[in-house]
Amino acid sequence: MSQKIKEQVKQLLADRKIKGFLGLREENGHVMPYLFCDPQELDSLSVGDWKKPGDARYPLNQILIQLAMAYPDETFAVLVRGCDERGLRELFKWKQLEEGKVIPIGMGCPDELAKACECEKPFPDCQIDGPKGKGAPSQRISKIEAMALEERFQYWLKEFNRCIKCYGCRNICPMCFCNECSLEEELLVEKGDIPPDNPTFHLVRAMHMVGRCIDCGLCEEACPAEIPLRILYKKITEVVAEEFGYKTGYSIEEKSPLNLIEVK
Amino acid sequence: MEFKTVLTTCPYCGCGCGLLLEVLDGKVIGTLPSKTSPVNEGKLCIKGWSVHEFIHHPARLTHPLVRKENELKEASWEEALDLTVRRLREIREKYGPESIGVLTSAKCTNEENYLLQKFTRAVLGTNNIDHCARL
Amino acid sequence: MAKKRLTILQKLLEFSGIHPERLRMRWVSSAEAAEFVHEITEFVETIRKLGPNPLKERVAA
Fold it and tell me: For tag attachment on chain B, is the N or C end more exposed, with fewer CB atoms within 10 Å?
């Protein structure tokens, strides 16, 4: 595995088409993001499979935005899974990254990981390596919808009650790039409130994920309280698909329904 | 151009969560939880997430400061240390060692904190030492 | 734009266990006073039938 990725990156570096390849490196038994500028370093390349497939995934797109801001004239290659590719497409449309300056190096996810992530499309269109996993539909949404209204409310109240306001979900999200986050706005969110305004805080975050969430699952993995955030965001994505026929990250041109103002 | 992430341990509480400092061209620009650390398994509390903020903070002390005419002015290390030694001695003699308290910080290294408590207890002669994480 | 947001919000609220009819959006111009009164009166009735908002106890706590 990852042999094809190494070859492709080596070629891109040799041809000087990229300044560096943003991927993951295994060092002393740990996996961490790294920018490979020297092809010889690629021996330590990791794809984020540490003990289980995909258990050491990081928001590489988020780091890429920082690199692109510091070096706007350079082109970078980046390791992408199915979700990352969806993220890139949206980030291009939101003008956070320039399409011509990003070369995605695609990798697919195995069935096991796709099922754990309940991922609809666990492989990027630009895939060159890795398995082509089978999409797995979400089952957790229907469990909530089977509950009566009052039961649902109590369920969510209980889940959000564990929130310690660490902002982990927002910090790790590869699609969150707002310079001023409304969740940090003192006038909207009271300081020192733990758990933060239940359920409003999380409903606000869910609303901000409309047309933005790429279903990568990093938020749930970063939550120390193990709140099932993805169920909320998956529901939002479902609503947007039903109401507006828009699926986040599937189109290169079509913008999210909240990313355009119609002038009639 | 160089971008790398450096694995380190959170300096705050006793948990010792593993975190990755994002370093771009020698400057720390962010923090990510380490997914491969057995302690925290990819999760952090808000203190861990904001650990990188104090490193390059503009409000950090970069020079010894001495209060002269009710205003903090830059001074040399010799001047600052001489003043500190003189005044601590005077206060200890006049009011006793219990009149002195020492406040250290979780942002210091364990070694620095060890030195400071040794100094407070063995040299100043008091147990009045504490720090922002109360550890 | 507001209509899009509110459509989504209503579905989100329902999913979270808050009755969707607690949220309503209507366009009423300042010249349509009668329409406005009718709308508000009807809305108040709807809310009364639904009972106190479950979020109320959370705010007081």
Answer: C
